[in-house]
């Protein structure tokens, strides 16, 4: 029997493409399905949330300005890297109490979901946009554009649910601040390690770990956040957060009861798009 002491890992936040510690110096223990210690996760503060929003805002013009085809390439590369870490993600899901078969199936579904959204990057404009009939010598076009900075409160489905709320927000050109699952954040931080070594620009995705009840009100009321996805929020807290989000007329995506294995459709992509209408004279 080995007498070597285990190295207990403390996972950090993911902000602006780097892995800072929480400015508060706090962390909290993450346990497995049987209550056994797994690791420490950073306990993000209001200041960390502000830093993440600043990073997302700084990254927004460059990410929104890329072609849909280029965003598709970047997201597909992330899927390739997720595939390379399949065993690690499976092991982390097993810590939550999932069987080996179920955990492996969820990892595969998450990778497939990421690829599916990557394929939409250069197609969503054609589907969500329109050429509108007008009574005059004009062309009239409606074109979708990204909303801006989106705060995403992830569900407790630690990988498939996370991918299902994150990928549709960034594939259309938004940047994000994600509050990971509070009881099961390890898959989110491992995903951050994948993102950091991919060609996704720093700041497009920022991941915070900690207490939702502490972080979400500040993100909902933050005047530089343009939209918020409340998927991971219990129903009894939704109204209060919607009232906070009304300060700058944020788009709000309410929690839905749809299972994560269901066909996702395009609703999560279009939820965080604005529509720009352009008039142009018809050439003679």
Automatic annotation (TrEMBL):
Domain Aldehyde dehydrogenase: 34-253
Signal sequence residues: none
Pfam families referenced in this protein's UniProt entry, alphabetically: Aldedh
Swiss-Prot/TrEMBL keywords: Oxidoreductase
GO molecular function: oxidoreductase activity
InterPro entries according to UniProt: Ald_DH/histidinol_DH, Ald_DH_N, Aldehyde_DH_dom
Domain of life, source organism: Bacteria
UniProt xrefs under PANTHER family: ALDEHYDE DEHYDROGENASE-RELATED
Designated name of the protein: Aldehyde dehydrogenase
Taxon lineage: Bacteria, Bacillati, Actinomycetota, Actinomycetes, Streptosporangiales
